[in-house]
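Re: the 236-residue chain
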Amino acid sequence: MSQPIRASSGELARRHAREYLRQAILLGELAPGQRLLEPEFAERLTVTRNSVRAALLDLAAQGLVERVLNQGARVKVITVKEAVAITECRMALEGLCAARAATAATAAQIDELDDMNARMAAAVTDGDLVSYTELNRQMHGQWISLAGPHPSGDLLARLNAQLIRHHFQLALRPGRPQQSLREHQAVIDGIRARDPRAAETAARAHIAGVIQSLRDSAQPTAPTPPSSPSEKEIRP
C-alpha cells in the first residue's frame, strides 16, 4: 500500500502516513483495538516519528484512532451495538438537515449532489469501495453544509467520525451500496422539489436502512448444511 514519497517529515509525510493508516484501518488490515506503534510505522513508511504522531492525531479527530493513557494509540473500538445507538441519534439530526437543505440549497448545489451520487455509482461499478466510502462521507457532509449554520452540524460531525470503519464494512455487504444510492437519490429529489417533509422522510428512511444493515451484520452466519447424507458420512 505504501508509495514512495519525497520527504520523511513535514506535511507531505504526515499526509502519506495518515492515508496509509486510514486505508489499513478501513480495509481491516489493522484490527479494532490493535496498538499503533509510532517507531514501527515510521520505519515502515520511511517517515519520522513526529509525522506518524501527527497522522495519528488526525485519525483520532476522525474517530478511527484513540489515545490510551500510558499505552499510546490504538485502532478505536466501536461495537455494532454502539454504532446502532450512534446512528439512531444521526437519524433525527440528518432528517433535520435534509429538511433545512430543501429550503436553502441553490440549484447548482443540488446539481452537485446529483453529480456526487453519480460518482458514487461509478465507484461501486469499479469496485472502488474506498472511494465510495469517502464520497459517501462527503455526501452526508454536504447535506449538513446545505442546512446552514445550526448546532446539528457540529453534533453530526462528531457522531459520524466514530462510524467511518462501520460505513466501510457496510459497503462490503452485497446490495447495500446500490440500496444506499437509491436512498440518497430520494433525499436529493426531495431537496430539488423544495419539499422539506419529503427530504426529511427520505433521509430518515436512509438512516433506518443503515441501522438495519448494522444489525444484520451482527447476526451470525448459519453454517452451510451438507449437500447429501453421504457427504456428511465421509467427513473425518
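Confidence is low (pLDDT under 50) at residues 226-236.
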